[in-house]
Amino acid sequence: MAEKAVFYHAGCSVCVDAEQQFASALDGARYKVEIVHLGEDKARLGEAEAAGVKSVPAFVIGGAVYHINHGADLSALR
């Protein structure tokens, strides 16, 4: 069974590039990637914060947060 990875982003150019570069590469046999657009699904901001996400784009895999570059702080998405 594949491990879940959540990719949080806000739709900015940095986020879209990270999705194209990393999310599709991870999705497959080892990981099942869920993509969450926080600009469109603000109800999940609390979930992202609780997981430790400070800025997007970011992955949460196995409880660990991996921030990729810097597109936007979560506070800017509120």
Automatic annotation (TrEMBL):
<protein>
    <submittedName>
        <fullName>Glutaredoxin</fullName>
    </submittedName>
</protein>
<dbReference type="InterPro" id="IPR036249">
    <property type="entry name" value="Thioredoxin-like_sf"/>
</dbReference>
